[in-house]
Write a structure and sequence with these properties.
seven-stranded mixed β-sheet; 19% strand; globular
Length: 165
């Protein structure tokens, strides 16, 4: 039996290490610390996520150049309407220019709360868009996921209702 050269072993270890790194970086939502997220509204005034305490909070980190994000936004607006009696606060956050976000806010009106992140998403560990989190009214994280979900699905809507109760 012939032994594999050490270079093949090194290559295999490198490939698996790289795959693991990329999976963690792009497929696993980062742990975020809500007080550390510096936000402003689209008029430039500071906003604290603490102002939403006592209510279920849905955070969606998105980018306007992200096709799945832009397809998800109308679904999130509908989700907010469907869960209005549960007092779900749905906040969409982007690190793009306030001017660009103002145009998007004009399109959605009061259906979505859009805030600007003062920190680049990479600085807070977000590399995949959208990255979504749901916190219940007690502030406990009950959902986290990178990539979009089917927010129109009755199954998903019922799961969200259960998570935020």
């Amino acid at each position: 039996m012939k032994k594999a050269p050490i270079s093949i072993l090194i290559l295999v270890v490198f490939v698996f290490s790289t795959a693991g790194f990329l999976y963690i970086r792009y497929e696993v939502p980062p742990t975020i610390d809500l007080p550390d997220i510096s936000l402003t509204d689209l008029s430039g005034h500071k906003v604290s996520l603490q102002s939403y305490s006592g209510h279920p909070l849905f955070l969606s980190f998105f980018a306007t150049w992200c096709g799945p994000c832009m397809r998800e936004l109308p679904e999130l607006a509908d989700l907010r309407v469907k869960l209005i009696h549960q007092h779900l606060q749905l906040v969409c956050i982007s690190d793009e220019s306030i001017e660009k976000l103002q145009l998007l806010q004009a399109h959605y009106g009061s259906q979505l709360i859009i805030l600007h992140s003062e920190k680049d998403f990479h600085d807070i560990g977000i590399y995949t868009y959208p990255t979504n989190y749901i916190f219940n009214a007690r502030g406990l994280k009950v959902y986290e996921k990178v990539n979009p979900d089917d927010w129109q699905s009755e199954t998903v809507i019922n799961r969200v209702k259960q998570l935020i109760e």
